[in-house]
């Protein structure tokens, strides 16, 4: 009734004018204005039956079928997403491989390689190549298991980007140990190393533990030829606590002392 009064722009107290009066021939207002058949006011209380009857088993079957259809649709969506992701990954790897200088080498079983270990120096990371090691098993195209060729024959997993083919001529041999120092920031000891094939200006400070692991005899010679002080004794005590520095000095022939820079 409010809708009709608003549509006809009538006052609320003029509601009598839109009732089915005799002047309308007993036609409901909704029929007079819209042409739709009128409904009884009792339909809101006594509604006519219009719903179909269903059994509980039929409802359960419909629910199961609905869930099955939803699962099939989700599986299809997930499979499409996986396919697209794999295709994009393959394309990205192909684009990267096509660039010059980024193709990683493949290492067959039995090859000898050098493995890189990250060493933190100050606020930066550097790679130190150790080896040779032997490739024992490829895990995938980018990961390999490598084994030390000396006891205890430790096996480690390395990424291809941290491996390179071993060449005897390409190894960096230390020519002389010039000096040693205590690194103030990290608290570790370092040795000033002069490398064969490089100029004197390219000598570098290297961790004492790493140099001692690679060339222990050369480190012993450096300690014996250096004038013993608290830094030298401290370094040797940490590197080889079971080998007193006095024994090294006695085994070393008396020769001219090398000058040492700190």
Verbal overview:
The protein has 262 residues and is an alpha+beta fold. Among the domains are: 1-31, no CATH class; 112-167, SH3 type barrels, CATH 2.30.30; 172-251, Beta Barrel (OB fold (Dihydrolipoamide Acetyltransferase, E2P)), CATH 2.40.50.40. It contains seven helices and eight strands. The strands form two sheets. Strands 4-3-2-1-5 form a five-stranded antiparallel β-sheet, with no helix packed on it. Strand 2 (124-138) and strand 3 form a beta hairpin. Helix 4 packs across helix 5. The model is unreliable at 255-262 (pLDDT under 50).
Using the CA coordinates, give the radius of gyration.
44 Å
* Unreliable stretches: 255-262
In the CATH hierarchy, the third-tier topology of the domain at 172-251 is known as OB fold (Dihydrolipoamide Acetyltransferase, E2P)
Order of helices and strands: HHHEEEEEEEEHHHH
Instruction: Give the strand line-up of the largest sheet.
Output: 4-3-2-1-5
Distance between the termini: 103 Å
Query: Mind telling me which CATH architecture of the domain at 172-251 this is?
Result: Beta Barrel
Number of strands: 8
Give the percentage of residues in beta strands: 15-25%
Largest sheet: 5 strands, antiparallel
Can you count the helices?
A: 7
Output mean pLDDT: 73
CATH class of the domain at 172-251 equals Mainly Beta
Anisotropy-based shape: elongated
Give the proportion of residues in helices.
Answer: 25-40%
Which structural category fits the helices and strands? alpha+beta
InterPro entries: Chromo-like_dom_sf (IPR016197), Chromo/chromo_shadow_dom (IPR000953)
Protein name: Chromo domain-containing protein
Domain Chromo: 172-234
Region (Disordered): 243-262
